[in-house]
């Protein structure tokens, strides 16, 4: 059910305060056709009450005629900012950008962040935003996991269904997603609660077997029958199985881009308040599936772009694949065992 404007204004004030918003800060709200009116309306009230100076930049949607889905994460790389000097200048001059339309994985976003601007993505429906309002404890937990991942030189993932994937690490940074932007130049996504990094280019290898209940995004489906993906030299070279495999292959083949099959980010979920089962309760187009990406103990891996991590691959096709019941080893030490996070000392 819906949340009240009062609840959403309080949620925005918590996120903006955690994001170190100060009175007088210049904040630009990036909006487009898909922006949720209650999210926008309550953000403006919260910003006003916190003494910020709020601008609104409305941009037309793009890629609708190319994408096979209306999900804003289904077709990446080019955004309404591409080549839009005036819009980019406004965002670079802002202290904080509230992205209510989805810039994720866009080259322009990285350029804007380099100017010190903070960008917070928030496109889930208000009731999900309100349920998963970030906390300082979320940040601390993600931060501890990130420190562990930064030290790792290999991620090895296994599962009872047959997954056995090795990802040499170290060439790419670790990205922490805890739901607010408390540092200059930081991007984050509200809601979230997970860590990701990228395998060293061309080095990931092994097999991933999706089992019943594992999730495909943007398909927003729970896999019903096993899907076996072979990974060689950092690319998915085979997708075998039944109908789920055929549907995934058909979707990816439509982009006609070999870079679609590259491995993208790998990591795991840490958000106790996100649920694996939520996706079953939403219409496909009503959510982008952040509960699925963030639920505690998932192994979240993906295919396609690496420009978020400083790479030059802006593949339009991006598949996020949160899996249950995996064990994630970092240099031989389990950080997730059979789908449950191995508590680090301060997590208890
Ligand atoms: O927040 C996000 C959302 C999608 C994604 O692929 C990564 N992080």
Automatic annotation (TrEMBL):
Keywords: Metal-binding. SUPFAM superfamilies: Thermophilic metalloprotease-like (SSF144052). Signal peptide: none annotated. The keyword Cytoplasm does not apply. One of its GO terms (molecular function) is metal ion binding. It holds the Pfam family NicX. This is 2,5-dihydroxypyridine 5,6-dioxygenase. The lineage of its organism: Bacteria, Pseudomonadati, Pseudomonadota, Gammaproteobacteria, Oceanospirillales.
């Amino acid at each position: 059910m819906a949340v009240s404007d009062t609840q959403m204004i309080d949620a925005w004030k918590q996120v903006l305060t955690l994001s170190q918003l100060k009175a007088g800060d210049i904040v630009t709200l990036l909006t487009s056709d898909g922006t949720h009116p209650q999210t926008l309306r309550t953000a403006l009230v919260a910003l006003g009450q916190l003494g910020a100076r709020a601008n609104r930049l409305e941009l037309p949607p793009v890629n609708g005629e190319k994408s096979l889905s209306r999900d804003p994460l289904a077709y990446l790389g080019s955004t309404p900012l591409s080549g839009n000097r005036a819009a980019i200048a406004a965002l670079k001059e802002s202290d904080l950008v509230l992205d209510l339309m989805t810039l994720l994985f866009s080259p322009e976003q990285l350029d804007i962040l380099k100017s010190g601007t903070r960008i917070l993505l928030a496109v889930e429906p208000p009731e999900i935003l309100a349920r998963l309002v970030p906390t300082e404890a979320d940040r601390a937990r993600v931060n501890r996991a990130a420190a562990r991942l930064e030290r790792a030189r290999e991620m090895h993932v296994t599962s009872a269904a047959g997954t056995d994937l090795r990802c040499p690490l170290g060439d790419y940074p670790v990205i922490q997603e805890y739901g607010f932007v408390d540092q200059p130049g930081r991007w984050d996504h509200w809601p979230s609660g997970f860590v990701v990094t990228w395998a060293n280019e061309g080095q990931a290898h092994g097999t991933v077997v999706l089992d019943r209940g594992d999730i495909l995004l943007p398909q927003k489906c729970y896999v019903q029958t096993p899907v076996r993906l072979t990974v060689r030299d950092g690319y998915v070279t085979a997708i075998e199985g039944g109908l789920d495999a055929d549907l995934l292959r058909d979707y990816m083949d439509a982009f006609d881009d070999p870079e679609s099959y590259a491995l993208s980010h790998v990591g795991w979920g840490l958000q106790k308040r996100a649920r694996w089962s939520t996706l079953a309760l939403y219409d496909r187009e009503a959510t982008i599936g952040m509960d699925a990406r963030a639920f505690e103990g998932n192994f979240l891996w993906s295919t396609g772009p690496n420009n978020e991590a400083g790479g030059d691959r802006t593949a339009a096709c991006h598949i996020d694949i949160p899996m249950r019941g995996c064990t994630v080893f970092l240099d031989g030490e389990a950080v997730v065992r059979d789908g449950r996070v191995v508590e680090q000392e301060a997590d208890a």
